[in-house]
Design brief:
heterodimer; A: 451 residues; alpha/beta; Anaerobic Ribonucleotide-triphosphate Reductase Large Chain; 2 domains; twelve-stranded mixed beta sheet; two-stranded antiparallel sheet; 44% helix; globular; B: 89 residues; alpha+beta; Alpha-Beta Plaits; four-stranded antiparallel beta sheet; 4 strands; 37% helix; 38% strand
């Protein structure tokens, strides 16, 4: 009779609790495509991606049918394009369009890797790349971009941080007809990981193999349901339950990921178990915190509850998969989580509390709409704060904020689909300009005397 | 290949007949059945063996989904491994 219970539990998770494989992301190395002639190199990029990923969508759909678990997104990550070494916006756009066209040709949802790694310093080529990013985001549909600005080993490249404000504002302006949506496709990282399958920040690191399959599993709804019945249980019991649930979800992802990689004949890279919410009802990370006993996400206690959740998810996931990687933990993207949207609208979840929560979640300030007239330096300062949390605490942090053109605090922006909608959040009005305009390089932190 | 078919829905005359007819049409052998009726809801789990030389997994999936839509049932066909992997260490 145990099989009876197990089968029904799995069916229930799939039907009622939104258990799914969030993404199957194929990592492709483009290092052998780059060269001095950028037109020819961009053609090689297009050819290589379409050749290697031609069967990705079809294969993922077949595996999805066989096991009855939906694979929601099929995606591609590539070697950071900044390694192509171009020097002009026109040349960078050749690569952006090659990526975008390749993604459309093979039918994936998104392609990531229009990225640069500048944590220690920028080359001339990197600087021209950063200037080209807003145009690349405005002129493509399916392409995402990211820049790594700091690391625990290298410190923070404040010169590059200073360039992020103008980059994000320009992107917001160029995509103003679409509620500045271009900014939702750009992430500023510290300690970026090389095997992350989730967008917008996925890229295929230079130390990665030629071609791999990485899988991202989600399931906040499943975790929430598991906790609903545990009304007065102490927190250690809750942590244990989260671990067990994360284990089951991860095992499903591992099986599906392995099968996709076997059928494609591409090595399996890593499995990333991240509780990633969607705007769908019952698919919320904030709701898990509410079930734990907080009236709304964002009130006092939220950081503690989120810390325990993230840690328990990691522990369960590590036991369940041979290769856990990526970001693994819990995401808190405001516009993609309906309980988080509600908490923000009711004034319970503020920007500052979100920043505190990012010190224990798996990524950072994610999908937050801010006023359209926010200054460039304030945006750079937000990124500097977040990078500092990551660099000092030896974790990945990221910023994906959208200064929505023409909107002010309290307005509501709607991007639709998986990206959801969000209230425009109020920021601190005092200036950070003189600090940001100093530029330079923040030294790497000391690794002892951790108090 | 072994697969597990799960059927959940309002109890009605002929559910078993209609499902086993489809399985018969596709040369699928039923190895085990468990079923209960809970408050008018019919819940059945069937372990079946699919002869892959004769029938593709996708075809059965499509045929059973058509039936599910006609009869207002929820029917899942999944390879057995998914349950073993998720619930056993």
């Amino acid at each position: 009779m145990t099989i009876y219970k197990d089968v029904l539990e799995t069916i229930h998770m799939i039907e009622k609790e939104n258990l799914d494989i969030r993404t199957t992301t194929m990592g492709i190395s483009l290092l052998d495509c780059f060269g001095r002639d950028h037109k020819a190199a961009a053609d090689r990029v297009y050819d290589k991606i379409t050749r290697l990923a031609g069967k990705l969508v079809e294969t993922a759909d077949e595996v999805s049918d066989d096991y009855g678990i939906r694979i929601v997104n099929k995606r591609i990550s590539v070697t950071p394009i900044a390694f192509a070494g171009a020097k002009t916006t026109e040349d960078w756009l050749l690569y952006a369009k090659a990526l975008d066209n390749a993604a459309k040709a093979v039918g994936v949802d998104i392609i990531g890797g229009f990225s640069a790694l500048v944590q220690k310093g920028c080359t001339e080529s990197d600087e021209s790349f950063i200037e080209a990013v807003p145009y690349a985001l405005a002129e493509t549909d399916a392409m995402c971009s990211s820049i790594n600005l700091g690391s625990t080993k290298a410190g923070i490249n404040m010169d590059a941080v200073m360039m992020m404000g103008p980059l994000i504002k320009k992107t917001a302006y160029l995509t103003r007809d679409n509620s500045s949506f271009g900014c939702a496709k750009f992430v500023a990282f510290a300690n970026a990981v090389e095997d992350n399958p989730f967008m917008a920040g996925a890229f295929h690191g230079v130390s990665e193999a030629e071609n791999v399959i990485n899988v991202g599993v989600s399931g906040p709804g499943v975790v929430k349901e598991a906790l609903v019945g545990m009304k007065d249980a102490p927190v250690d019991k809750i942590a244990e339950k989260i671990k067990q649930t994360a284990f089951k979800i991860t095992r499903a992802g591992q099986l599906v990921g392995r099968e996709v990689s076997d059928r494609l004949g591409v090595p399996f890279g890593i499995l990333d178990l991240s509780l990633a919410p969607t705007p769908a009802v019952g698919d919320s990370v904030a709701e898990i915190l509410e079930v734990m006993g907080l009236e709304r996400c964002g009130t006092h206690g939220s950081t503690a509850a989120l810390a325990m959740l993230t840690d328990a998810v990691k522990k369960g996931g590590i036991m369940a998969s041979g290769h856990v990687g990526g970001l693994s933990g819990a995401f808190i993207p405001v516009s993609e989580d309906n309980r988080m949207i509600a908490a923000a609208e009711e004034g319970c979840l503020t920007f500052d509390k979100l920043e505190a929560m990012t010190s224990v979640c798996s990524v950072g300030l994610d999908m937050i709409a801010i006023p359209g007239d926010t200054s460039e330096d304030t945006i750079s300062a937000i990124i500097a704060d977040e990078a500092a949390i990551g660099v000092i605490n030896n974790k990945t942090t990221a910023v994906r904020v959208i200064p929505v053109y023409g909107m002010k605090a309290g307005d509501r922006v709607d991007w639709g689909g998986l990206f959801g909608s969000a209230p425009v959040m109020e920021l601190n009005g005092f200036s950070s300009s003189r600090f940001i305009q100093r530029g330079g390089r923040m030294p790497a932190p000391v690794h002892s005397f951790k108090n | 290949m072994k697969a597990i078919i799960t059927v959940v829905g309002k109890d009605q005359v002929g559910i078993m007949y209609k499902i086993s007819k489809i399985l018969n049409d596709y040369h699928i052998n039923i190895e085990d059945i468990t079923q209960t009726i809970l408050q008018d809801y019919f819940t059945m789990i069937m372990v079946v063996k699919i002869d892959e030389a004769k029938t593709g997994f996708h075809e059965i999936d499509v045929a059973l989904h058509e039936l599910a839509e006609q009869e207002g049932l929820s029917i899942h066909v999944q390879k057995e491994e998914i349950f073993d992997t998720m619930h056993k260490i």
